[in-house]
Write a structure and sequence with these properties.
The structure holds 2 protein chains of 2 kinds.
Chain A lengths: L4 H10 L6 H18 L34 H5 L5 E2 L2 E2 L7
Antiparallel strand pairs in A: 1-2
Chain B lengths: L1 H4 L3 H9 L5 H19 L2 E4 L1 H16 L10 E5 L26 H8 L3 E6 L25 E2 L2 E2 L11 H8 L5 E6 L5 H7 L2 E4 L19 E6 L2 H11 L17 H4 L8 E5 L9 H16 L3 E5 L7 H16 L17 H12 L2 H14 L5 H21 L5 E5 L15 H5 L6 H5 L4 E8 L5 E8 L4 H15 L15 H9 L3
Parallel strand pairs in B: 2-3, 2-6, 9-10, 9-11
Antiparallel strand pairs in B: 1-3, 4-5, 6-8, 7-8, 7-12, 11-13, 12-13
Helix pairs in contact in B: 3-4, 3-18, 6-7, 8-17, 11-13, 11-14
The chains are: A mainly alpha, B alpha/beta.
């Protein structure tokens, strides 16, 4: 699989990571290299195999659907870079 | 004071209970040792001496009152992937900035509730992504081990393995009695092998993942790095628990692993998988493996050739599954709720700037690979394919367990390498995990135990793989290897003479 620059830019956009022109060039090579290397999985016949969904055969445990935490707004916003009262502050989203 | 830091957990526990030494004395010895060594070794990214001394004071009270908890007064290091209440936690990434969690990880709580003392936070690869500790935002960790060439010790800087390189270096340099670590593809076992320490990744679900910075959620597990098999057994018992806050943690009783050690390996069936004899494997690794087989046989185990046919596909499958899960887990670092923010012209620009500045090169690379394999049109070809291969890898082991109780392999394909030797080629670095990654893919427990020295005088480890939740058998088999191979400790404490004179004087005055 060959990853071209357009694809690198599209993925970077999806991943919300800004990349420079120089980086895009390098990533083209690196990502192509890694994807070529994982291609060897195509040697394995998996036509009758189920994908793994859990490594240990246990039932996920359920709990009662009740509030068991909360009233900790100070804690929730404590590490935020920009806060007003108990709100996270972000750049304007809607004009 | 140096003598105190050389103790094992089992020895220190005895001295504390016999009141030959106080928790405060022991803790101070480590604080001094860290002060001397850290400028050269860089194992700690944050030291917490005040917290440690206050915990030690409480321990001394309890010891005096005869009310000691299992790990009372034992000073430990804590990998910086574990959230610590009101103590900076960074995952060794710039993106978490000055993050101070308002909660403690479950594994951490278990340790401190058992009376252990936290000396500080240990260096690791950024978000645990790496096999050399060179991707840390705090710079690499220098292994206390040095290569020998023509009988002389060289000064080349070697890596302590990764991602838990701060943990492995700190334990082997006597900068803590033992340390927490995490393992997603080999990050406990590979650094343990490269530093002559013991590291166990328990069964997926044995330790709670709550409060541990997530990398790849279906693979991540916490475990200890320690000086001896016994110490690792003591540590794991304290770390493991069922935790309702982690729905994948298992409600199974945690056995007394230390008690199991005395049982020996008589009649134990040990499998040797032919697929691990990889092309180009060095003679010394092959010899190490044969030594391990001979030791276990001599101790009463029986040896069986087995086949794990999908072994070679574990690593490429891992490099789809792990980045995919990482890209999803790391989406939370958006510069809004915590950590770094680099403002942009709008919200998306802020996200993109923040994530470009906050994540290091390897982390960015893995997020991009993960985003790609999960993107529309590629999901089936990559992610689904890899999860199917994973089923086959697990099936290989399920078949093996019909005829054997444990599997013996080398931990790594080669001894510790030097700084920068593998950073240019991502795949060369990924190959470090070739023997360890299958264990994570199948959710099994695996332990690395020191077994010999390379021709360069640096440590090599053997890996034992066990059935799900059968860590007790792994400890027994590892003990048999340790009994035969002995321990491997750093003789040349080169770091003690190169830094602050006050520390060096203290460290030197009582050494033999």
């Amino acid at each position: 699989m060959r990853v071209d620059e357009t694809t690198v830019r599209r993925i970077a956009r999806l991943a919300r990571i800004k990349i420079s022109d120089a980086e895009a060039k390098g990533l083209e090579q690196e990502l192509s290299g890694i994807l070529n290397w994982v291609e060897q999985l195509n040697q394995v016949d998996t036509s009758t195999v189920e994908p793994m969904t859990r490594v240990v055969p246990i039932e996920l445990t359920k709990r009662a659907d009740v509030v068991n935490d909360g009233e900790i707004a100070d804690d929730v916003v404590k590490n935020a870079p920009m806060v007003e009262d108990h709100f996270f502050v972000v750049p304007k989203v809607v004009e | 004071m140096t003598e105190l830091t050389k103790l094992t957990i089992a020895e220190a526990r005895e001295k504390l209970r016999a009141k030959e030494v106080s928790a405060t004395e022991l803790t101070k010895a480590f604080i001094d040792a860290i002060e001397t060594a850290n400028p050269s070794i860089n194992a700690y990214v944050l030291q917490t001496p005040e917290l440690a001394l206050s915990q030690a004071k409480e321990s001394d009270k309890r010891l005096k009152a005869g009310d000691a908890r299992p790990l009372e007064g034992l000073p430990l290091g804590n990998k910086d992937l574990f959230c610590t209440k009101d103590v900076r936690t960074t995952a060794c990434s710039k993106i978490l900035d000055d993050f101070k969690p308002t909660y403690e990880s479950t594994v951490g709580s278990n340790l401190w509730n058992a009376g252990a003392v936290m000396l500080g936070k240990l260096n690791c690869d950024e978000f645990a992504m790496g096999s050399s500790n060179e991707t840390s935002a705090f710079g690499p960790v220098v292994s206390p081990w040095r290569r020998k060439k023509d009988g002389k010790t060289t000064t080349d800087k070697l890596v302590p393995g990764g991602s838990s390189g701060g943990s492995s270096a700190a334990v082997s340099a006597n900068l803590c009695l033992a340390a927490t670590a995490t393992d997603t593809g080999g990050s406990i076992r590979q650094p343990a092998a490269l530093t002559g320490t013991v590291g166990i990744k328990p069964t997926y679900g044995r330790c709670s993942r709550w409060g541990i910075v997530a990398f790849a959620s279906s693979l991540d597990q916490a475990g200890p790095i320690a000086k001896t098999v016994r110490d690792a057994a003591i540590m794991l018992r304290a770390m493991a628990s069922h935790d309702p806050k982690d729905s994948t943690s298992v409600a199974a009783p945690v056995p007394d692993y230390e008690m199991a050690l005395a049982q020996g390996v008589k009649g134990l069936r040990v499998g040797v998988p032919k697929e691990y004899r990889v092309e180009g494997m060095s003679k010394e690794i092959e010899k190490l493996w044969q030594d391990g087989i001979a030791w276990l046989k001599a101790a009463g185990a029986t040896i069986h050739d087995i086949s794990l046919p999908h072994t070679k596909y574990a690593l490429p499958a891992y490099y789809i599954v792990a980045p995919a899960e990482a890209s999803s887990n790391l989406a939370r670092y958006d510069g809004v709720r915590y950590g770094l923010r680099v403002p942009g012209k709008d919200l998306i620009d802020t996200y993109e700037n923040t994530r470009a500045a906050g994540f290091g090169k390897e982390v960015r690379r893995r997020i991009l690979i993960g985003t790609y394999v999960l993107s529309a049109g590629y999901y089936d070809a990559y992610y689904l394919k890899a999860q199917k291969v994973r089923t086959l890898i697990k099936r290989d082991f399920d078949d093996a367990w019909k005829s054997v109780d444990v599997v013996l392999t080398p931990t790594t394909p080669s001894p510790a390498f030097g700084f920068g030797e593998k950073t240019g080629d991502p795949i060369a670095m990924y190959l470090e995990d070739i023997f360890t990654v299958t264990v994570n893919m199948a959710g099994l427990p695996g332990i690395s135990v020191p077994a010999g020295l390379s021709s360069e005088g640096t440590p090599l480890g053997l890996q034992l793989i066990g059935k799900p939740f059968d860590e007790a058998t792994l400890f027994r088999a590892a003990q048999a290897i340790e009994d035969a191979a002995g321990r491997f400790v750093v003789e040349d404490r080169w770091w003690a003479g190169t830094t602050a004179k006050t520390g060096a004087k203290k460290a030197g005055s009582k050494s033999k």
